[in-house]
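Can't paste images in this forum, so I'm doing it all in text. The chain is below; anyone willing to post the predicted structure tokens underneath?
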Amino acid sequence: MDRERDIGFAVRRLSNLIKRDIEKSRGKLGIDPVKGVNGWAINYFYENRSRDIFQKDFETNFSIRRSTASRILKTMEQKGLIERLSVESDARLKKIVLTDAAIEIHKRITEEIAEREKRLRMGIDEADLDVFFEVINRLSFNMEEHDD
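Text version of the structure:
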């Protein structure tokens, strides 16, 4: 298969470019405890702060396995970004809440995320973006359907 038309390679390349940009901006903003998926996770918890979020919700939203979610959340907890609090209805369940430090970090990186998204969309009209998201959603569906 032609490498330039290999979907997995193209997605991986773009993912690497975005990760590199995120790491560069993290240093520029002086946000040391936030790496990789932690920034996306902070945003997810921030946007859903009005409801109880549990590890299972996190796993589902990010399409990750339980062990991966546990590792990410444990690291975030150690860095002082989240707390896991018991809920009254079931002491076994721990809801995930952001710390004040994470909320401050969220405020600082929101602007940076918007700028990155603006750069990603440069020169691409809405119709092309619609097609892009249709294709990405179909690719995700195809992979989830055959995730045995």
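The chain has a mean pLDDT of 89. Residues 38 and 72 are 7 Å apart (CA to CA).
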